[in-house]
């Protein structure tokens, strides 16, 4: 029972001047209700405004290049695949079995497709057009077939087919760290080919960027 309801019931019971112990209880309940309202107001304000540590981490991480990767999954009961653009794709381990990871915000139609199918395909890209096409969670570029980009060599760099590792994935806040076991991988060029000069796209400081020149390891 909250303090306000108790006060109303006490007021209804004692229409004249209430006894001392009732007046003391009423004062205590009123003070508790006021403090509770102040606490709730402060908590709501803090929830709406990110704290200084959050802002600091966000500002610092904007200076870190993040690889742009398209994640595509086909829900078994949906006619079209779901996909999204992520900037958190990376390898977890390579041996004895290669595992990769990425983060996504929940709820997610792409994760719903991953969960239902148990698999997904990751593709590195070098096209701003493709990045825009998959920017919103659930958007699907029309040039997708079996989880990979149909127009080979026009936006895609490499692809990896993965089985979702349900037991290794974990939720952190409103995000899910998705872990996948790589079962097949290849490039979007001619079979077996790899262009050393083909640049991947990264995301840094709020903009898409191409990977820059190689720096000499002995250079200051």
Keywords:
globular; eight-stranded antiparallel beta sheet; three-stranded antiparallel beta sheet; 220 residues; single chain; alpha+beta
Q: What does this protein structure show overall?
A:
This protein is α+β, with helices and mostly antiparallel strands. It has helices at 3-13, 20-48, 52-61, 109-117, 128-133, and strands spanning 66-67, 69-73, 82-86, 90-93, 99-105, 119-125, 144-145, 148-149, 156-164, 170-172, 175-187, 201-204, 207-210. The protein has 5 helices and 13 strands. A hairpin with a 2-residue loop joins β12 (201-204) and β13 (207-210). The longest helix is centred in the first third of the chain and has 29 residues, at 20-48. The termini are far apart.
Q: How many angstroms separate the termini?
A: 68 Å
Radius of gyration, in Å, reads 27 Å
Helix content: 25-40%
Report the mean per-residue pLDDT as an integer: 77
The assigned structural class equals alpha+beta
Tell me the major beta sheet. 8 strands, antiparallel
Q: How many β-strand stretches?
A: 13
State the low-pLDDT regions, or none.
20-25
Q: What share of the residues does DSSP label as strand, in percent? A: 25-35%
- If helices are DSSP runs of H or I spanning 4 or more residues, what is the number of helices? 5
The 3D shape can be described as globular
> How would you spell out the order of helices and strands?
HHHEEEEEHEHEEEEEEE
